[in-house]
Design a protein that fits this description.
With 328 residues, the protein is an alpha/beta fold. It has one domain (30-327): Alpha-Beta Barrel (TIM Barrel), CATH 3.20.20.70. It has eleven helices and eleven strands. Strands 1, 2, 3, 4, 5, 6, 7, 8, 9, 10 and 11 form an eleven-stranded mixed beta sheet that branches. The model has no long low-confidence stretch (mean pLDDT 97). The structure holds ligand PBG. Residues 123, 125, 127, 135, 171, 207, 210, 222, 278-279 line the site of ligand PBG. The site of ligand PBG has 10 residues, from loops. It catalyses: 2 5-aminolevulinate = porphobilinogen + 2 H2O + H(+). InterPro entries: ALAD, ALAD_AS, Aldolase_TIM. This is Delta-aminolevulinic acid dehydratase. One of its GO terms (molecular function) is porphobilinogen synthase activity.
Length: 328
C-alpha cells in the first residue's frame, strides 16, 4: 500500500508538521525594527483620548507621546511617524511652519526623549493644518495650487528638519515635491535630513478613520492629487520620478489592497521600499476581532508578513507596538 504508485513520494506537508519545522523554513520574518508607529498628537491635550474609529489608538498629549516614544524604543521599533493636530487652522496651514507649532514641538520632544534610538519621521503635509483640509493651498476657484503648495512644503520641511526629523514623510502628492523640498533642505544646510516619499499614494476609502484621528475638515476628496486605484503605470511613473528627485525611501499606501504595487516597487527601486498599513486596514481587523469574527493577533501578524513578503522592508502600522510584543 505505501509504495503503491497512486501515493505521493514528494510530500510538502512534511515541512509543515511542527511549529519548529515551519519556523525553520519560513522565508519572511517581520522584525520589530521593520515597524514604524504613526502617532497623533493634539495641541492643548492633557490626557490621551482614544480615537473612536481606531480602538487602541490615541490622540496624545506632548507628555504622553514622550512616554510612548520611550516604550517604542524599548520595544525595538524602527521609528515613529508623528502627525500633529493644531489648535488653530487657516488657509495656508500657518501652524505647520511655526517653530512652536504642534508638529515641530512634538518632533523636538521625541528627539529629546529617545536621541537616535528611533527614526523620527514627521508627516510633511499641510492637510492637518489647513482649515479646508486639503494637502496644499487653494486657488481662488478652490482647486489645489501645486506650485504654491511646494513653497509651503519647502518651508515646512526646513522647520521640521530644524526640529530634529531624521526623515520627512512627504505625503502631499504634489508634482515635484521631492525635488523641491530636497533643494530647500540642502540650501538650508540640512543635507542629512532624508525624504520618505509617499511615492504611490492612492485616493482610498480606507483613510476614513485617519480623518477622524486628525479631525479633518476636508469636504469632498483628494482625487485631483492622489492616484486612481485602477492604475499601475502611473504608480511606477511616480516612483521613478521620486527616485530621480532624490527620495531616500519610497512608500506605497495603502498596503494590503496594493500589494501588486509594493511588489512592482520592490522590483524596480534602488532605494528601500516602505508600505503604510493604514487606518482603515487596522480598523477592519479591530472591528472584526471585537465581534469575535477573526483572531486579532493572527490577523495582524498575517497582514504584516504579507506586506513584507510583497517587498516592503519598512512597514508603517498602528499595530507596531502589539506586533512587536507578539514577535518577542
Ligand atoms: C496626509 C496623510 C493621510 C494619511 C497619512 N498622511 C490622509 C490622507 O491622505 O487623507 C492616512 C493614513 C491612514 O489612513 O492611516 N497627511
Amino acid at each position: 500500500m505505501p509504495n503503491s504508485p497512486e501515493f505521493p513520494v514528494i510530500r510538502p506537508r512534511r515541512l509543515r508538521r511542527t511549529a519548529a519545522l515551519r519556523r525553520l523554513v519560513a522565508e519572511t520574518r517581520v522584525h520589530p525594527s521593520d515597524l514604524v508607529l504613526p502617532v497623533f498628537v493634539k495641541e492643548g491635550l492633557n490626557e490621551p483620548v482614544e480615537i473612536a474609529s481606531m480602538p487602541g489608538v490615541f490622540q496624545h498629549s506632548v507628555d504622553s507621546v514622550r512616554k510612548l516614544a520611550v516604550e517604542a524604543a524599548r520595544a525595538g521599533l524602527g521609528g515613529l511617524m508623528p502627525f500633529g493636530i493644531p489648535a488653530v487652522r487657516d488657509a495656508i496651514g500657518s501652524a505647520a511652519t511655526d517653530p512652536n507649532g504642534i508638529l515641530n514641538v512634538v518632533t523636538r520632544a521625541i528627539r529629546e526623549e529617545v536621541g537616535d534610538d528611533l527614526v523620527v519621521i514627521p508627516d510633511l503635509c499641510l492637510d492637518e493644518f489647513t482649515d479646508h483640509g486639503h494637502c496644499g493651498v487653494l486657488r481662488p476657484d478652490g482647486t489645489v495650487d501645486n506650485d504654491a503648495s511646494l513653497v509651503r512644503y519647502a518651508e515646512m520641511g526646513v522647520s521640521l528638519a530644524e526640529a530634529g526629523a531624521d526623515l520627512l514623510g512627504a505625503s502631499g502628492m504634489m508634482d515635484g515635491q521631492i525635488g523641491y523640498v530636497r533643494a530647500a533642505l540642502d540650501e538650508a544646510g540640512h543635507t542629512d535630513t532624508g525624504l520618505l516619499a509617499y511615492a504611490a499614494k492612492y485616493a482610498s476609502a480606507f483613510y476614513g478613520p485617519f480623518r477622524d484621528a486628525v479631525e479633518s475638515q476636508l469636504q469632498g476628496d483628494r482625487r485631483t492629487y492622489q492616484q486612481d486605484n485602477a492604475n499601475v503605470t502611473e504608480a511606477l511613473h511616480e516612483i521613478d520620478l521620486d527616485i530621480q528627485q532624490g527620495a531616500d525611501i519610497v512608500m506605497v499606501k495603502p498596503a494590503l489592497p496594493y500589494l501588486d504595487i509594493v511588489k512592482a516597487a520592490a522590483e524596480r527601486s534602488p532605494v528601500p521600499v516602505a508600505a503604510y498599513h493604514i487606518s482603515g486596514e487596522y480598523a477592519q481587523i479591530v472591528a472584526a476581532s471585537e465581534r469575535g469574527w477573526i483572531d486579532r493577533d493572527a490577523a495582524i501578524l498575517e497582514s504584516l508578513t504579507s506586506i513584507k513578503r510583497a517587498g516592503a522592508g519598512v512597514i508603517a502600522t498602528y499595530a507596531a507596538m502589539e506586533a512587536a510584543a507578539l514577535l518577542r
